[in-house]
Design goal:
The protein has a six-stranded mixed β-sheet, sandwiched between helices. It has a six-stranded mixed β-sheet with strand order 8-7-6-9-11-10. The chain has a three-stranded mixed β-sheet with strand order 13-14-15, covered by helices on one side. The radius of gyration is 26 Å and the shape is elongated. Helix 7 crosses helix 11, helix 20 packs antiparallel against helix 21 and helix 20 runs antiparallel to helix 22. Helix content is 46%, strand content 17%. It is an alpha/beta fold and 522 residues long. It is built from 22 helices and 15 strands.
C-alpha cells in the first residue's frame, strides 16, 4: 500500500528515445528540490529499422506501448499533478508516427514529438541541474540512437546547438553488417562521421567553453566499461572518460564478436551491437575538438524534462531546481577517486599550513582559510589522473565537478582556483574562472596559491624529506624560510626557489630558502 506525504506534490516524465524508454517520477516538498521516487529504463529499440525503412517496427511498437501503459499506471498510483512524455528522432522520422501517437493518447498519454533544438536544450538542462557549481559555459554531447545532440550553453542561454543524424542505431544499421565489423565497414563509417562533424567542430571551437560533458546510454556505457576494465570504481554523479582510454577501448571492442562485447560492456548487454558505432562518433568528436577528456554524466534528457516541468508548474518560484539524495564525497574520497599521491598531498598540506601560520603577519588572512588551503593542497595534483601536461587546469575542473560535502559553492571556487595556480602561470583576470571571483576572493587566491606553490616545491621529490620549516622576516621585504632535515634538500630547495616567484610578486618580498645547521647541509 502506498503511503503519501500530504505535503508533497508528484510529477512524472517519459523520454521515448530511439534506443530505450525512460521513466521518472518525482515528489516536491519544498521549492528548489525534488526527490526521485521511481525511475526505470526499458531497453526497447523503437528506432529499429526506422532510419532505413522510414516506418516503425511493429514488434517494437507493441513492446513500447506496454511499457508506456505501465508508466502511466505508476503515475496514476501517485495521482501526479502533471505527466509529460516526449519522443525524439525515431518518431520525428517515422512516417507512421501519427498512428503510434494516437495509440498513446488512448493510454492517457499526450506524446510530444520535440524538435532537435528542444531535445538539445533539455539534455543540457538535465546535466547542469545535477552540477554542484555554476557553469560558466559548457559543451554538451549526447549520442542517442538516431541522432547526436551537441550544444554550448550555460544555465541561462544556449549559444549554439546541432542535431546530427549520427546516432548509434542509425550508423550501425547503415554501415555495419559483419560480426565483428570489417575494416572496410569501419572505414566507411568513420569517413561519413568525419565529413559530417568537421564543419560543426569548426563552429563549436569558436565558443570558449570551459568544461565538456557527455550523456546518454552509449557514452555512459563506454565510461562504465572503461572503469570496469581499469578497476577504477565510479563515485559521484560524474565520471571522467579520457580520449586515450576511449581509443584503446574501441580498439578492443571493434575486434570482438557481438557475444564477446555483450559480456564485456557494463550495463545493458543489448547495447553491444551499437556501441562501436557510437564510440567512434564520440572519439571523432573528441579528436576534432581536441578534448583530452570529458565528464560523463548519468543525467540527460529525462532529468531535463523533470526540471523543465517543475519550472513551468511553479512559475512564481525563481529557483534552480536540484535533486535530493546525492551522496556527498569527502576530501579523501575525491583524492582516492583520482588516484592521488596521498603522502605527497598531506606533506604539501602540512608545509602549506605551516607557512600560513608563520606568515600571518604578511598575508593577514583570517584562520578560517586554513581549511580552504588544506583542501587545495590535498587535491592540487588530482589533474594527473588526466595527464601531466596541463594537470593544474585539469585539477581545477575535477575539483569543481566533485561532490565535496564540507564546502559551499564559494569555498569550492576558491579551492579549485588555488589548486589551479599551484604551477605555471600566475593568477590573472585574463583567465575566465579567476575573473569571475570577487576582488576579495581574487586576493585570497593569489595569497594562498603563493603559499601552496612553495609548499609543493618543498616536496619536489615526493619523499617528505622536509621535517620542519621556520619562517622569519629578518629585514624589510625579505622572507627567510629555513628547513630542517637529515636528508640532502638540494632538490627541494631548487623546487621551492623556482616556485617562490609568485610569493615574491604577491607580497613584494624576496624569499630566501636554506637548510639549517644541525641537519645535512647543501
Amino acid at each position: 500500500m502506498l503511503v503519501y506525504d500530504l505535503m508533497a506534490e508528484y510529477f512524472a516524465v517519459v523520454d521515448v528515445g530511439s534506443n530505450a524508454l525512460r521513466f521518472q517520477l518525482a515528489s516536491v516538498e519544498q521549492a528548489g528540490t525534488y526527490r526521485i521516487l521511481e525511475q526505470e529504463r526499458q531497453p526497447i529499440r523503437l528506432g529499429r529499422k526506422v532510419f532505413q525503412t522510414g516506418t516503425l517496427d511493429k514488434e517494437s511498437v507493441e513492446t513500447a506501448l506496454n511499457a508506456l501503459r505501465d508508466f502511466r499506471s505508476a503515475a496514476d498510483r501517485y495521482q501526479v499533478k502533471t505527466f509529460r512524455a516526449v519522443a525524439t528522432s525515431a518518431l520525428r522520422e517515422a512516417s507512421d508516427a501519427r498512428s503510434f501517437i494516437t495509440r498513446t493518447e488512448k493510454l492517457g498519454i499526450n506524446l510530444e514529438v520535440i524538435p532537435e533544438e528542444e531535445e538539445a536544450r533539455l539534455i543540457s538542462l538535465g546535466i547542469m541541474s545535477g552540477l554542484r557549481f555554476d557553469l560558466a559555459l559548457g559543451l554538451f554531447i549526447d549520442i542517442g540512437g538516431g541522432s547526436v545532440e551537441i550544444s554550448v550553453a550555460n544555465r541561462t542561454s544556449t549559444f549554439c546547438l546541432f542535431s546530427l543524424p549520427l546516432g548509434a542505431v542509425r550508423l550501425t544499421e547503415k554501415f555495419i553488417e559483419s560480426d565483428p565489423p570489417t575494416k572496410k565497414e569501419l572505414k566507411n563509417l568513420q569517413r561519413a562521421v568525419q565529413q559530417r562533424l568537421k564543419p560543426v567542430a569548426g563552429r563549436i571551437e569558436q565558443e570558449k567553453f570551459t568544461m565538456a560533458f557527455g550523456s546518454a546510454g552509449t557514452i555512459t556505457a563506454l565510461a562504465d566499461t572503461d572503469a570496469r576494465l581499469t578497476g577504477e570504481p565510479r563515485m559521484g554523479s560524474l565520471a571522467v572518460l579520457k580520449r586515450s582510454r576511449l581509443k584503446a577501448l574501441l580498439e578492443l571492442l571493434k575486434s570482438q564478436s557481438l557475444s564477446q562485447r555483450s559480456a564485456l560492456i557494463a550495463g545493458d548487454p543489448k547495447r553491444a551491437d551499437i556501441i562501436v558505432a557510437g564510440g567512434l562518433v564520440l572519439l571523432e568528436l573528441m579528436t576534432q575538438l581536441e578534448l583530452d577528456y570529458l565528464f560523463v554524466s548519468n543525467r540527460g534528457l529525462r532529468d531535463g524534462l523533470i526540471v523543465d516541468l517543475l519550472r513551468h508548474y511553479y512559475p512564481d518560484r525563481e529557483t534552480l531546481w536540484s535533486q535530493e539524495g546525492h551522496r556527498p564525497e569527502s576530501l579523501e574520497e575525491v583524492g582516492e577517486k583520482y588516484n592521488y599521491d596521498a603522502a605527497h598531498a598531506y606533506q604539501v598540506s602540512h608545509l602549506a599550513l605551516s607557512l600560513f601560520y608563520q606568515l600571518q603577519g604578511l598575508h593577514r588572512l583570517p584562520e578560517k582559510y586554513t581549511t580552504i588551503l588544506h583542501a587545495a593542497a590535498i587535491l592540487h595534483d588530482i589533474g594527473l589522473f588526466i595527464a601531466y601536461p596541463k594537470h593544474h587546469k585539469h585539477s581545477y575542473y575535477l575539483i569543481k565537478s566533485s561532490g565535496l560535502n564540507s564546502f559551499n559553492k564559494s569555498d569550492l571556487d576558491l579551492i579549485a582556483n588555488i589548486a589551479r595556480y599551484h604551477r605555471k602561470t600566475h593568477p590573472s583576470p585574463k583567465h575566465l574562472p579567476f575573473s569571475q571571483l570577487s576582488p576579495s576572493d581574487q586576493d585570497v587566491v593569489r595569497k594562498l596559491s603563493a603559499l601552496l606553490r612553495v609548499a609543493d616545491g618543498l616536496d619536489r621529490s615526493h619523499e617528505s624529506r622536509v621535517k620542519e620549516i621556520t619562517c622569519t622576516l629578518p629585514r624589510h621585504r625579505t622572507v627567510s624560510i629555513k628547513l630542517s632535515s637529515s636528508s640532502d634538500l638540494k632538490t627541494e630547495i631548487e623546487g621551492a626557489k623556482e616556485k617562490a616567484k609568485l610569493m615574491d610578486e604577491v607580497f613584494n618580498v624576496e624569499t630566501l630558502i636554506q637548510q639549517v645547521k644541525g641537519s645535512k647541509r647543501v
